[in-house]
Amino acid sequence: MKSVLILGATSDIAQAVAKKYAAEGWSLTLAARDTVALEPIAADLKIRADAEVKAVQFDATDFENHAAFYESLSPKPDAVICVFGYMGDQESVRSDFGEVKKTIDVNYTGAVSILNIVANDFEQRESGAIAGISSVAGDRGRQSNYIYGSAKAGFTAYLSGLRNRLAKKGVHVMTVKPGFCRTKMTEKLELPAALTAEPEQVAAAVFSGMKKQRNVVYTLWMWRYIMLIIRHIPEFIFKKMDM
Questions:
Q1: Pairing of β 196-197 and β 180-181
Q2: What's the pLDDT band for 39 if we cut at 50, 70, 90?
Q3: Could you say which DSSP state residue 106 is in?
Q4: pLDDT for the residue numbered 19
Q5: SS3 letters for 116-175?
Q6: Residue ranges making up the domain that contains 187
């Protein structure tokens, strides 16, 4: 039985991903900072999907203990999906560097820290798959969320380089770029229904993309073309737009 490690397993998207992989017969290791919230999620999957599920503690910003965390896993996963993220209030990050640092530490530094360790293991084994949940916000900096977007842009570039490095070793790396998604993180935002994905749609795209060894997956699909247009708006026009 193949096993998957889901990092940031209490998020809405991560829970949907876990349900999808459990339904497909994978064993799961669910990792999150809040183990109190994680335990009932793991218990529910064991009952509903009759899946093998472990719940373990993981803090994306506890960089010094990432190596020990990964070494403690037995067995080692066949696939790792990095789902954790943080998006604070844009007004707060303009004046509070603590919020800036948290945004970067969670969305970029923490992800790079743990995935470097995973990558080294997979490279030695010459097998495995990694998926990172980035964001369309990283495709171009916009005034509405440029701190978050810049961290996701860095993560997207990291995953691209990692994919280039590991391809020759038989390790697949996939970048997932959701647009709007209906989650707790966006519950206070007014989102256009036609452009907004449900967590289950993202989960289906992750599983399908990993199975087909896609390099970059946008969810919903139309975001690929929306962002293509946005990236090609001339800067002298773009800087005058209210985005």
A1: parallel
A2: very high
A3: I
A4: 97
A5: HHHHHHHHHHCCCEEEEECCHHHCCCCCCCHHHHHHHHHHHHHHHHHHHHHHHHCCEEEE
A6: 3-238
Domain count, the chain: 1
The answer to the question of residue 90 being in a domain is yes
Q: Which residue has the tokens 């860095």?
A: 154
Whichever domain contains 139, its CATH number is: 3.40.50.720
How many CB atoms are located within 10 Å of the residue 46 CB?
Answer: 16
CA distance 96 to 17: 33
Query: Whole-angstrom Cα distance, residue 206 to residue 20?
Result: 9
Helices (H), the chain: 12-23, 35-48, 66-71, 90-95, 97-104, 110-125, 146-166, 199-212, 223-231, 235-238
Is a pLDDT exceeding 90 seen at residue 91? no
User: Where is average pLDDT lowest: 88-92, 125-129, 162-166, 198-202?
Assistant: 88-92
Flag the least confident range among 90-94, 158-162, 207-211, 233-237. Answer: 90-94
CB 113, CB 89: distance < 8 Å: no
pTM for the model: 0.95
